[in-house]
Amino acid sequence: MIAEISKMPLYQQVKEDIKSAIQQGKYQPKEKIPPEPALSEQYAVSRITVRRAVEYLCSEGYLVKIHG
Prior knowledge:
Layout: H1 10-23, H2 36-43, H3 47-59
């Protein structure tokens, strides 16, 4: 979970946690991660924060967004 007190922005904490889960094999290639509302609840942050974390993970090549 996200540390209560951290100098790292929330979106970055969420990004790092999801990235770690990917690297540890919690999410397999081509497997969907939980939807934004579920992640928002899991990390106790806004959907905007989750969306920002996901966007960064996409730009870093850890996730791919597929619409539809």
